[in-house]
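Practice problem: Trk system potassium uptake protein TrkA
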Amino acid sequence: MKKLYAVIGLGRFGGSICKELSKEGKEVLAIDMDEDKVNEYKEIATHAVIADSTDELALKELGFRNIDHVIVAIGDNIHASILTTLILGEFGVRKITVKAQNNYHEKILEKIGADEVVHPERDMGRRIAHSIISSNVLDYLELSDEYSVVEIKAGEKLSDKTLIELDIRKKFGCNVVAIKRGKDINVSPMPNEQIIMNDILIIIGSDKDISRFQKALVNEED
Ligand code: ATP
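Answer key — structure tokens:
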């Protein structure tokens, strides 16, 4: 059976999730209490309906009990976001992803049963900050408060050296899990793998260790 998705709140974040899921051919029910927003998504989502997601009966009538994955993308109204998450939890929705507005909101959402809490502005801000500090940091993904994965473009300090020569694991405590070269990706590279200029290294480690590695071997912006 086809997986059913619902997006509640069609602001920039919810709207872009809705567009992307629809583009990928997924069945999406789009909800917003704003009529103009709903009209905007009539041609995009499978169904677009005006509804207040804090109205339990309305959600029940829309068949929310049968939705596999709901994305709650209500922005400023934290109260509505929490109440909606509670209702969806009681319905037994299999997966609930909620956009958090701040750290307190995030904590509450985790406590009341959101399966996934996302914080797009904060996360994107962090990623951009890392690429501003060093233009060689292409991407930065936080795994936990302590651990991250970074994508680093090899500059002069890394080029023409093998992983064993660089001894990244021993010296910096982080691991090169893959090397991307053009369209090719070498997962779990061997110690004798030689890095060439502009290779992209995918590195996993603690933030502290990654930072030490960057300071030593990644060129900083002027
Ligand atoms: P962003 O653009 O960053 O995603 P935003 O500022 O557009 O966020 P909001 O406008 O606060 O976020 O909320 C997103 C949408 O959620 C709005 O279109 C709003 O009408 C809708 N919304 C808010 N509360 C409810 C609710 N209880 N039920 C349904 N839709 C809601």
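Discussion: Residues 90 and 214 are 46 Å apart (CA to CA). Students who identified this feature from the tokens alone can consider the problem solved.
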